[in-house]
Amino acid sequence: MKYLPYWILVFALLQNLSPLFSQDVKNPENRIKYIDSLYEIAKKDLIGNGDLLNELILHSQNENYPKGELRGLISLGIYYTKNAMIDSASSVYEKGEKLIQQHPDLEFALAEIYANKAALLKNQKLHYQALTCYHKTHKINTKQKDKKAALFTKMEILNCHLALNEPDKVLAYSKELLQDTIVMKQEDLKYILYSSLAMAHFNKKEYGKAISWWNATLESIQDSDQKGEISFVMTSIANAYRSLGNYEIALKKGLEAKKILDNKPLLSAYAAKNAIVLGEIYNSLDNPDEAIVHFENAILLNPDDPIDIALSYKNLGAIFKRMESWDNAAKYYEKYGAHVDNLYHNRNENFSKIFEKRMQVIEETYKNDLHLKDNDILMYKNEKQKLHVISLLIGFFSLLLMLLSFILYKKYNTSEQQVELLKANEKKILENHLQSREEEFLATIISVNERLDKLSSIKKNLSSAIKYNNREEIIDVEKRLDQFISSISDLTILKDRIESQYPGITAQINTCFPDLSTNDVRHCLLMKLNLSIKESAQLLSVSTHAVKMARKRLKKKMNIPEEISLKDHLQNIST
């Protein structure tokens, strides 16, 4: 029964699609009205109508109705986003941008596309790229004089700077917003602004100012039904008081927030944050038993949040270490280390997927550019041929005109050589550009290997400390883990570099060997980068034996003769 509304909607759309094929609807304007009416129906359910949206886009193209096509692409992007199909959503938004470039009168929709792309990037923790899209959105909103939309975009920019730990930029952007009368009248905008200011001051360790802004935030939503947000603000106030050393007030505020969250399973994520802060408060009050209970509750309440879990494991390890319960301390520190290791591994996988997607986009763009240039050259040659024929015909009537036609031919022949020379120069520039990107990518790979070596060393020391129950070594491992976690933020540099590196090779390998898996292609790229078996194993977090076996299977899949090495074969493909 739960799918009944969806099937009713599908039936209604199919029924309404039939007039598009009817002979009765001969007027293009009427067919366009039908398409618009069907989009209105589809708009009511953007979770289960992807196929129908594709149908409407196709009909819009057939009717030469770019506005309808753009509307369909934006709706399809929202559909893909709601169904967690991130790559597909990005692809249709890029198609929407290209459509607007061809039809400048559709520029009014560009702000929505950039805003949707920014939200996608922010959800993937790609805040620098999200900032770029949000700034473009704000520029268009300002140009279109949509002040409220521009203000909401500024709030998103504040959130990105907060996520990037740039509190000074948040405070700088907020000065203008605090003086804006629209922001002060809109409770939702005021709530976002006050929360951002509070978090910025908290990150700058200005806890008193943070408490003042959170109190103002609380006042703006106190009478609303947003119980989760109210508890979150109260928990944040408690955490600020704890940071100031006012543990009694902190405990009071934290328990008030907990009371709001009790027996509300839908607010478990907020309850987990509250449990972590209460655990830290009890720990500061030298009440380790209560602290342990709350940290363990945080893990149970929100098992899908890796940051909460890692923080809870770390605090539990520290508490048991202070209690000189070395077995428990070692157990939680080991869980903490394993969790961090898993986070690092998952992050590398995400970077790899983003990198592969970016390479595909660059390859497709490059092919499109070449195709356009080939068309231009073909058009040029056709025009040249027409001129040559005309000149020959004229030459039959007059020697002077024949001479002029010969000169014209020489002129265009020289132009053709110049075009060929320009093509050769452009190819050389592209090759040099790709080579420089490859060198930069190699440098990034080396940096990642160094981090993997450091992490392996920490894990070995931790195993030794657990085995021999060495307290001093456990303390040293804890410090080294903290230093390593602090350095992980530098991986955003790796992310930014990988997204734009080494276009073309993946597409060539996939074209020649379509049966290769994603892991097979990854091994091909590592060999193309001249990485040794040991370096590849470190980068992929596997044994050297696993890399050897993977390369052996890869050679068999590609049907490479024994006398030819896999590396030489890959070099020939790239050439």
Number of strands: 0
Instruction: Characterize the quaternary organization of these chains.
Output: single chain
What pattern of helices and strands is seen along the backbone?
HHHHHHHHHHHHHHHHHHHHHHHHHH
Quick one: overall form?
extended
Approximate strand percentage: under 5%
- What proportion of the residues is helical, as a percent range? over 70%
Q: Separation of termini?
A: 58 Å
Output the number of helix runs: 26
- Name the average pLDDT: 77
* Low-pLDDT regions: 1-25, 489-500
Radius of gyration: 31 Å
* Biggest sheet overview: none
Structural class per helix/strand content? Answer: mainly alpha
Describe the structure.
The longest helix has 70 residues, at 326-395. The chain is extended and about 110 Å long. It is mainly alpha-helical and 575 residues long. It has helices at 4-17, 28-42, 50-62, 66-82, 86-102, 110-123, 127-143, 147-163, 167-178, 181-185, 187-203, 207-221, 227-244, 247-261, 268-284, 288-301, 306-322, 326-395, 399-468, 471-488, 491-498, 505-512, 518-528, 533-540, 544-557, 566-574.
Label this structure with key terms.
575 residues, mainly alpha, 26 helices, 82% helix, disordered N terminus
Ordered list of secondary-structure elements with their pairings:
Blueprint lengths: L3 H14 L10 H15 L7 H13 L3 H17 L3 H17 L7 H14 L3 H17 L3 H17 L3 H12 L2 H5 L1 H17 L3 H15 L5 H18 L2 H15 L6 H17 L3 H14 L4 H17 L3 H70 L3 H70 L2 H18 L2 H8 L6 H8 L5 H11 L4 H8 L3 H14 L8 H9 L1
Helix pairs in contact: 1-2, 2-3, 3-4, 4-5, 4-6, 5-6, 6-7, 7-8, 8-9, 8-11, 9-11, 11-12, 12-13, 13-14, 13-15, 14-15, 15-16, 15-17, 16-17, 17-18, 18-19, 18-20, 19-20, 19-21, 24-25
